[in-house]
UniProtKB/TrEMBL annotation, chain A:
Component of the Mediator complex. GO terms for cellular component: mediator complex. Its main location: nucleus. This is Mediator of RNA polymerase II transcription subunit 20. The keyword Nuclease does not apply. It comes from Salix brachista. GO terms for molecular function: transcription coactivator activity. Component of the Mediator complex, a coactivator involved in the regulated transcription of nearly all RNA polymerase II-dependent genes. Mediator functions as a bridge to convey information from gene-specific regulatory proteins to the basal RNA polymerase II transcription machinery. Mediator is recruited to promoters by direct interactions with regulatory proteins and serves as a scaffold for the assembly of a functional preinitiation complex with RNA polymerase II and the general transcription factors. InterPro entries: Mediator_Med20.
UniProtKB/TrEMBL annotation, chain B:
It comes from Salix brachista. It is found in: Nucleus. Its main location: nucleus. Keywords: Nucleus, Transcription, Transcription regulation. Residues 1-36 are annotated as: Disordered. InterPro entries: Mediator_Med27. PANTHER family: 34 KDA TRANSCRIPTIONAL CO-ACTIVATOR-RELATED, MEDIATOR OF RNA POLYMERASE II TRANSCRIPTION SUBUNIT 27. GO terms for cellular component: mediator complex. GO terms for biological process: regulation of transcription by RNA polymerase II. Belongs to the Mediator complex subunit 27 family. This is Mediator of RNA polymerase II transcription subunit 27. One of its GO terms (molecular function) is transcription coactivator activity.
């Protein structure tokens, strides 16, 4: 199973409204096959729409796809924890852009109540990983869900926002590395 | 989604057993039977009774299922046939149950003398599980204890007679010696007994159910207490959970359930209190605990279970009746589509396409003897069952008060680190699961309760924090 994330850049039509966003992120999640999510990071907007919105957007031609990433891997169950580990690749090539791991604690839905449990799990994970001397390390950036208007109760919109943050992070590190080379 | 119920093929085999067994043994046990044989007979009959009760429960479930099917349009004859069949088998079960009950009464297991004796010994009715298993330790002890008790009584009388005679005929031997109590072991506990008596007095105002729950609501912040009659609970459990942002009390108003505040304000609430059989303790975002009372309206808890606050109330079961299961799945998914939230909708859609033989049943595993799908809550439920038995064994009068306060200690479940190893998550060696500290000690819980009630300045919440939390591996029995 995999998630697909695409950035779309606005076509350079004559724009009447200059404050329209230049680009946005679109994401589809495996646990929500009928939905498509839009995220505009600059303005902290997340939108949940039906998956048919993609065909509408194609027909409108106001935005075109710039970069599309595919997150694909395996799902594991460790007691009450559900893990998804996968690789991040652009849609039509095999370059590995990174490795993604999604941790879900099934019994709880509250961000606040599960915070300690999640942090401790990640600590245990990092400790186990450090013994393996893998190149690179896992980074977790928690986006500010409140700014996106999301509540304490976890939902797929939270997931979409997290993926958007991850994507931005990937692109940022990629361009830094490209600049170095 | 978890597949929770066993295959329905197995049920018919069970249906046939009890009637045959009940008719085989009509003669009452002779009084010349040795106590062990009486115990064995009584145990066997209790086993039969519990199987019959399980069958009655299943029959009730099937009747409700048939009602459910009847509510769906386009079904004609099937529900009627089911009703008739179930009606006949239910009547037979109830008849058999009555005859087993009569036999138990004749053998002296259920009559008044034993019941009053059982109260004075602090022993309780056996726990009957939904799968028909009987946890009959207390009864077995009691019945076997009759034989033992007579020996103890005789010894005690003999010792008393001896000391009396010794005092009468050999007074000089008694000088300088205190009169020995016939129960020297109790001396060790006399100080804790005084405390215990004070504790009992302290709780003398908590005699009724509403007293206990009122006091609890006052003492605990963040806790929502809801009470239900048994059938109301089934209805609620079969409906979908409210979304997290909805206040559970609002939901209860919509569906007409009894909430505690309603009980206090409505004038004809006295009758309703008598029928309360289920108490739900809800700590939002942490857990939901269900306590079952038996009999309804009393303060005798008989089962407790923990669940996730967002656990789904709907179960899926494998349908065996290929004749109508396909039709039902289609109808049901259309029926539910408008009511489910988008997440569940997608999952059911997936399930419907992948497993066309699954029958979606309007039942529920969320009840006081059910088990959560999450390991953490399953472990807590197991531990809570032991704690409940302990509290019942210590004093049946304060058992509900104790178990309810003990449950409230779990509000720190996902935040409090283990008192032994100092970490939140630990790997349980036996089950290879990462779990937070799921054990809370219960053996000396009453002592801690006494300490906190005497120290009025300490809020109940804080008092209970001193209890400590332990991982499964960090917990030892002495705690």
């Amino acid at each position: 199973m995999g998630s697909a994330l695409a950035t779309q850049r606005r076509n350079n039509h004559q724009s009447l409204a200059p404050e329209l966003p230049r680009d946005f992120l679109g994401i589809s999640l495996p646990e929500q096959p009928n939905k498509y999510y839009f995220i505009i990071r600059g303005q902290r907007i997340v939108l949940e729409a039906d998956s048919s919105i993609q065909t509408i957007m194609e027909k409108l031609q106001s935005y075109k796809s710039r970069v599309a990433l595919y997150f694909e891997g395996f799902q594991y169950q460790l007691g009450d924890f559900q893990l998804r580990v996968g690789k991040v690749t652009p849609t039509h090539s095999d370059n590995l852009r990174g490795i993604i791991m999604e941790v879900e604690y099934l019994p709880l839905s509250s961000l606040e109540k599960s915070r300690q449990v999640m942090e401790e799990f990640v600590d245990i994970w990092q400790e186990a990983i450090s013994k393996r001397s893998l190149p690179g390390h896992f980074m977790h950036i928690e986006p500010s869900f409140v700014e996106y208007g999301l509540s304490d109760h976890y939902s797929s919109q939270h997931t979409a926002v997290q993926y958007a943050t991850v994507m931005a992070q990937l692109i940022a590190t990629q361009s830094v590395q490209a600049a170095r080379n | 989604m978890d597949v929770k119920h066993p295959l329905s093929i197995q049920q018919p085999m069970q249906l046939q057993e009890p009637p045959a067994a009940a008719s085989q043994n009509p003669n009452p046990p002779s009084s010349t039977d040795a106590p062990p044989k009486q115990v064995a007979l009584a145990m066997e009959r209790l086993g039969q009774a519990s199987r019959l009760i399980a069958d009655v429960r299943l029959g009730a479930d099937r009747l409700l299922e048939a009602l459910f099917i009847a509510a769906v349009p386009h079904q004609r004859n099937k529900p009627l046939q089911l009703f008739v069949k179930e009606d006949a088998s239910m009547r037979q079960h109830l008849q058999d149950l009555r005859s087993v009950g009569r036999q138990l009464e004749e053998s002296g297991v259920l009559n008044e003398t034993l019941r009053s004796r059982s109260n004075s010994w602090g022993l309780h009715l056996p726990v009957v599980c939904p799968d028909g298993a009987v946890v009959a330790y207390a009864w077995k002890r009691q019945l076997a204890g009759q034989a033992g008790a007579s020996a103890v009584d005789r010894t005690r009388l003999a010792l008393k007679a001896f000391t009396d005679q010794k005092r009468r005929f050999f007074p000089h031997l008694d000088e300088g010696q205190d009169v020995q109590s016939t129960e020297p072991a109790s001396k060790k506990h006399c100080t804790s007994k005084d405390l215990w008596l004070n504790y009992q007095e302290e709780l003398s105002d908590c005699k009724t159910l509403s007293d206990i729950l009122t006091r609890l609501e006052k003492e605990m912040l963040n806790l929502k207490v809801l009470t239900y009659e048994r059938l109301d609970w089934f209805k609620r459990a079969s409906s979908l959970p409210a979304s997290a942002s909805e206040n559970p009390l609002d939901t209860s108003k919509d569906h007409g359930f009894h909430s505690l505040s309603k009980l206090r304000t409505v004038s004809q609430s006295a009758a309703a209190t008598d029928k309360i059989a289920i108490i739900e303790l809800f700590f939002p975002s942490v857990f939901r605990a269900i306590i079952s009372l038996h009999p309804a309206g009393s303060i005798d808890p008989d089962a407790v279970a923990f669940f996730s606050p967002d656990e789904f109330f709907l179960t899926l079961s494998l349908g065996d009746d290929s004749g109508w299961s396909g039709c039902l799945v289609w109808k049901t998914s259309k029926y539910y589509k408008s009511e489910f939230d988008s997440n569940l909708d997608a999952q059911l859609h997936f399930v419907d396409n992948m497993f066309p033989f699954i029958r979606q049943q309007g039942g529920s595993y969320i009840h006081a003897r059910g088990f959560s799908v999450h390991h953490v809550f399953r472990k807590i439920s197991e531990h809570a069952a032991m704690a409940l038995q302990h509290f019942l064994g210590v004093s049946s009068r304060t058992a509900l008060y104790s178990i309810v306060h003990w449950i409230c200690c779990y509000q720190t479940l996902f935040t409090k680190v283990c008192s032994k190893c100092g970490k939140l998550l630990a790997m349980d060696r036996k089950s290879l699961l990462l779990l937070p500290p799921v054990y809370r000690p219960y053996r000396h819980f009453s002592t801690l309760q006494i300490a906190s009630t005497q120290n009025n300045s300490l809020a109940k919440d804080q008092g209970l924090e001193n209890l400590g939390a332990f991982h499964i591996g960090c917990f030892t029995e002495e705690l």
